[in-house]
Predict the 3D structure of the following.
Amino acid sequence: MHLTVPKALLVSTMIMLAHSGSLAGKDAPKAEIKISYNYRHLFLRGSDGVVEISNRYILLANQKESKFYSPQTEYLDSLDSTSEGRAVSRQLMDIGVKRYLETGDRSAVPHNDGDIYVFKSIPEMETAVYDKAGMIEFGHYTEPFAEMEWAIGDSTKNLLGYECIMATTDYHGRHWTVWFTPDIPIHDGPWKLCGLPGLILEANETDGQHSFIADGIEKSDRLMQPVYGKHRYEKMNRIDMLKSLSAYYGNMDGAVRAALENLPDGKRAAISKAPAVQPENTQNIDLIETDYRK
Amino acid sequence: MNRFFAYTICLLTAAYAHAQVNVTGIVVDKEANEPLTGASVIIKGKDGKIKKFSSSKTDGRFSLTIPSVAGCRLEVSMMSFAKQSIPLDLSLIHI
C-alpha cells in the first residue's frame, strides 16, 4: 500500500504556564531583574599609549525589554537635563577640579564612566543604541535582533552560582564567545548581545580587547527611564557613527587642540605644549565593532 | 502553586527518514488566559543538550524545526512563571 505522507511532521502544542509571582506593571517599563557588569576594554589614548579601561554598567530587564547603561554617566546626564541639576553639576565640577589641583587625584573630577545606552525591545525585535560619535557629538541608531546568529557549544562552567553554556557568534567584525544561563530565561545580555535562551553572564571577543563579566544579579523593580537629553543624539547610520568615533579617537590630542584654538567667544587658548606624537597602533586596538573598516 | 497545564499534541507519522519535524505552539498565561511574549522555548535532546531554541512572539506563538523529536523534551520558561517540560517522543500520542 502506498502511503502518502506530508513532507513535514507537525507537532502542535498549547503550553499554559502557571503564574508563580507578581507581574511587572503594564504602564511603566519596570525591570524585574538587575545585573551589574564590568566592561573591560583596551584603548589607545593619544600620547598615553594603550590603557586598560574598566566601566561599570547595569542591565535592567523584564521579559519584554531591557536597558543597558552606566549609572555614573546617567547621573551626570540627569543633572545636565535641568537648570537646578546644571547648577549642582557646576558645583561638583568646581569641588572636583579644586581637589585635583590639590592632590592630583583625577578621579575627583566628575566624569562619564561608560558612554553607551542600549535599549532592547522584544515586541519590536530591535535594539536602539545611544552613544558618543566624537568629542562632543552624540548619535543614535536602531538595528534588528536578526543581525546576531549564535552557535551553542558543549562547554559549561559555573558563574555566580549559575550553570552556564558556551555560545559563539561573529558579529560586526568581531568573534564573540559568551557564557549564558538558561536558569535565568531572558534572552538578553550586556551591550547589544542577546538572542540566546538565557542571560549572558560573560562575553569575550577573540582579540582580548573587549570583555564583559557579570558580578552581581538581583531582583529589581527599577524603572527603565529613557535617555536624558535625547535631543543631543543625532539619528545616524551605525557605520558612519563608528567611523566618526574612530577618527576622533585616532586624533584626540588634535581634536582638543583644535577646540582650544577655536573657542566659541572667538578667543584662542594659549597652548604652550608642542603637539603630542601619536604612538603607532601596533596592537591594532579598535572599537568594539570593527566592520566600519570594510 | 498548581502546576496543572493543558496541552494538545497532534502527531502525524511519516515514513520518510529525512522528514523534518515542525514543533509549534502557543504560550499562554494560565490564570489570565492571555498569550505571553518573550517566553524562552527550548528543545533538549536525550543528552539534555539544547538542540533548538526560540522565544514566543507577540501572539504567544513559537515555531521550531528539528530532524527528529525522539527522546527530546520541550522546555518553556519565563521569569515569574513555573517552568514547563514536555516530552516530545514519537511514542507518545495524545488526542
